[in-house]
Amino acid sequence: QLQLVESGGGLVQPGGSLRLSCAASGFTLDYYAVGWFRHAPGKEREGVSCISSSGGGTNYADSVKGRFTISRDNAKKMVYLQMNSLTPEDTAVYYCAAVLGIATMYAHTYNYWGQGTQVTVSS
To answer: pLDDT digits over 31-83, tens only?
Structure first.
C-alpha cells in the first residue's frame, strides 16, 4: 500500500527554521516526482515546491524562493523541505504528494497524498 507520511511541523517563532520530512512506503520512490503543498485557513491550497524523480529538477513558489529548499534521498525514500526565515504567512498545513510523472506545482496532477503536518509561525 502506497503511503506518504509527513513530519517535522510545529510551532516556530518568526525568523526561525523547520525541516519537514516526507516518508514514502509501499512503492519505489525513485520513479516519482514529489511536491510540497500548503493549505492555510481561508486560502486556497498552494504549491510550495516540487522535485523531479531524480532530484535534478526543482521549482519553488515565488513566495518561498530563497527561503525554502527541497531535496530528496531516494535510497531512504525521503523527501525534505527545509524552511528558513519563516514568517506568519507561512502558517499552514503542509502536505507532500507524489506522482509517477513530471514534477509540477499543480495539486491536481498528483495521485498520492500524505495526511499533512501543521506549521505555525507565531511569536
So the answer is: 999 999 999 999 999 999 999 999 999 999 999 999 999 999 999 999 999 99
Give CA–CA dist 122/13, Å, rounded: 5
Q: What are phi and psi of 48, to 5 degrees?
A: -100, -50
Identify the burial level of 20 via C-beta atoms within 10 angstroms of its C-beta, where 0-12 means exposed, 13-18 middle and 19 or more buried.
buried
Rounded distance between C-alpha atoms, residue 23 and residue 99, angstroms = 14
Contacts of residue 76, defined as CB under 8 A and 6 or more positions apart, other chains included, come to none
Are the C-beta atoms of residues 72 and 82 closer than 8 Å to each other? Answer: no
Measured between alpha carbons, how far is 113 from 46 in angstroms, rounded to an integer? 14
